[in-house]
Amino acid sequence: MVTEYESVEPRAGTDKPAGSPGRLVALDGCVNFRDLGGYRTATGRQTRWRRLFRADGLNRLSPEDVAVMAGLGLSTVIDLRTREEADQRGSFPVDQLPVRYFGLPLTDVLPSADQLPDWQEASYVASHYFGMVTGKGPVLAEAITALASDGALPAVMHCSAGKDRTGVLSALLLAFLGVPDRTIVEDYALSASAMERLFARLQAEHPEAGEAVTRYAPAILHVAPETMERFLAAVRAEYGSYDGLIAELDVAEPVQRLRDTLLGPV
Questions:
Q1: Range of the domain at 157
Q2: Is residue 228 domain-resident?
């Protein structure tokens, strides 16, 4: 069972301690910054710790957070948000910590208020995720190629909540590395507690909008494992296998480089 808090490191200990480091990296400006290390593949290899991260918005990092990023040796940021989100909310502070920054929107627009209630339905959300694959293949390919380039790691991919767009790219990368579906679903489900932290932050920061925040809370908080199960099944049904999608995206060489760098020995 994948757990978010098992062996979580304190803020001061960003270097790998004895044993396995923690999955959740505690930050002031993020609620969902997680390590994708330590996951076993079907062949018995394991994803390396402190090489690839997934996160929510990185536009609110405190000076202490930036110091943590520096301690992690962060080299690349993949921003999956829309252009409007990046323009309105800001982006990773490259002026404070120079990194390779890629703005690669995985959706063109955010769901409207009328659509948010549908985000409680696993089938609807899974269909939306699958639409990112069929409609944004070149973006996914560019993100994978960027992560596989020399000197790209450690890297983080993020959106606003770190749940949906980040969930799609994270799931595909883990699948391409050979991590079993069950583990991918468990990793996706770890965002549930992060969404509770996000909801609490929204309530504290926008007390005047309490009614609206509460109205949209179910869509913000909802993280159903079935959603990821359905999405992965749809990918395999459409492309025959994850290798079929790799071929469709034309990323066989980048994926192999990621396997070489991100997977430890058996």
A1: 34-262
A2: yes
Q: Is position 135 within any domain?
A: yes
Asked if residue 1 belongs to a domain, the reply is no
Provide the number of structural domains found in the chain.
1
For the stretch 217-248, pLDDT in tens is: 666 677 999 999 999 999 999 999 999 999 99
User: CA 243, CA 22: separation in Å to the nearest integer?
Assistant: 30
The residue assigned the tokens 């930036």 is 66
Cis omega (within 30 of 0) on the bond before 10? no
| CATH code of the domain containing 221 | 3.90.190.10
* Contact assessment for residue 128 and residue 98, using Cβ atoms and an 8 Å cutoff: no
* CA dist 257 → 162, 199, 237 (Å): 25, 38, 26
CB burial of residue 235 (10 Å; 0-12, 13-18, 19+): buried
pTM for this model (two decimals): 0.89
Nearest Cα neighbor of 179 from 251, 244, 55, 264 is 264
CA 215 centroid distance within chain: 25
